[in-house]
Amino acid sequence: MNDFVLIFVVMVAGFTLGQLLFAWRPETSGRLRNLAVALALRITVPLSILLAIWNLKQLHWALVWLPLIGGAIMLAGFQLGLVVGRQLRMSGAELAVYGPGGGFVNLGALGSLTLFVYLGEPGLALLPLYKLFEELIYFGLLFPYARRHGQFPVDTPSRVWRDPVLLAVVGCWLCGMLLNLGGISRPAWMGSITSLLVPLSSFLLMISVGLVFRFRALLPELGRALPLALLRVILLPALGLGLVWLLGLQTFGDGLLAASVLILASMPAAVLTIVPASLYGLNQGLANACWLLSNLVFLCWLPWVPSLLSWIRP
Q1: CA–CA separation, 116 vs 146, rounded Å?
Q2: Which residue of 108, 182, 191, 249 is 20 to 30 Å from 22, comparing CA positions?
Q3: Would residue 29 count as lying in a domain?
Q4: Residue 126: CATH number of its domain
Q5: pLDDT tens digits, one per residue of 271-303
Q6: Is residue 11 within 8 Å of 110, Cβ to Cβ?
Q7: Is 241 inside any structural domain?
Q8: 137 CA to centre of own chain
Q9: CB-based contacts of 295, cutoff 8 Å, min separation 6
Q10: DSSP label of 90
């Protein structure tokens, strides 16, 4: 199957199934969403990362820069949302949706799938390092920022280090590193397991999106959501590549690190964009529009990936 078609089918099929499940049994949608998220983020995603890191051929000191690059790009997305929102004369409550809408990134579902499709397991193995500061930025900055402007202040998770998702990912990452550094060869048949786990993870997470996404009040906000969606996919990858070149990492792994940063910096808004608006009584229509347009722009950008990668990795 064509690379673009595979990603498109997984996204649309998962989202559509989530919408259908909600229409069929709305009273159970919360439990179904929790189940899909738990299966993906606690089992299939961590296992695919373990297998990918176990098989990674190059471990190098240069990889320590990857978490800093990833964190810088997420923070830049947040700042981009604030700057564009102010130019659009948004209120403080609207900025509390728009700013985090630029910072929340779909690294789990689409990041892992896109890396695997275009760069294989070596690219997928770099994902945990890139997103190392993700939880800290999300729950230490983006959620509190949205909460300050909300109508219904509630507590957000503290003690990020106790998050079972984070523990599962870090635990599997460490296991993969130990197996890799221990010189234990990964059985060849496990490669086919990774080929199943990655699309399955993305499919499950897109089901969870479909179970919570609502189209009500979305249309009036599309015009304001579009500038952020377009600028994200242009400026953030440019920033990522700029940092890679500035640090002299463009040749690492025959361009693997640069290609991974390009792809991950281009990822669309995560479904978490919708969550603060729901929790804190913010503009739900704007949040939904930011998520939807960001993902549609991403799909329009996706066919250009092979050309960009051939430039980075000639």
Answers
A1: 33
A2: 108
A3: no
A4: 1.20.1530
A5: 778 877 776 778 888 998 999 999 999 999 989
A6: yes
A7: yes
A8: 13
A9: 11, 106, 268, 269
A10: -
One-letter amino acid for residue 129 of the chain: L
Query: Dihedral angle at the C-alpha atoms of 67, 102, 111, 276, nearest 10 degrees?
Result: 100
Q: Which of 179, 218, 189 is nearest to 49 (CA)?
A: 179
- What's the total number of domains in the chain? 1
Q: Phi/psi at 220 (nearest 5 deg)?
A: -65, -15
- The predicted pLDDT at position 156 comes to 47
**Alpha carbons 314 and 262: distance in angstroms, whole number:** 15
Cα separation, 14 vs 20, whole angstroms = 10
Distance CA 279, CA 157 (A): 12
Q: What is residue 159's predicted lDDT score, i.e. its pLDDT?
A: 52
Report the alpha-carbon distance of residue 113 to residue 305 in Å, rounded: 14
Measure CA of the first residue to CA of the last residue in the chain; give whole Å: 23
pLDDT bracket for residue 160 (50, 70, 90):
very low
CA 97-231-127 angle, 5° bins: 80
Residues 218-241 have a mean pLDDT of 93
What pLDDT is recorded for position 15?
85
Asked if 52 and 240 touch (Cβ cutoff 8 Å), the reply is no
The confidence score (pLDDT) of residue 70 equals: 94
Residues in the chain: 314
The domain in which residue 253 lies consists of: 47-203+212-312
Residue 177 lies in a domain: yes
Q: Is 34 domain-assigned? A: no
Whether the Cβ atoms of residue 69 and residue 130 lie closer than 8 Å to each other: yes
pLDDT at 165: 65
Q: Which residue's entry shows tokens 């179970």?
A: 211
What integer is the mean pLDDT of 27-34?
82
Which phi and psi angles does 42 have, rounded to 5°? -105, -15
The phi-psi region of residue 56 (left if phi > 0; otherwise alpha if psi is between -120 and 50; otherwise beta) is beta
Q: Which residues have C-beta within 8 Å of that of residue 243, sequence separation ≥ 6?
A: 69, 72, 73, 261
- 39 close to 200: Cβ distance less than 8 angstroms: no
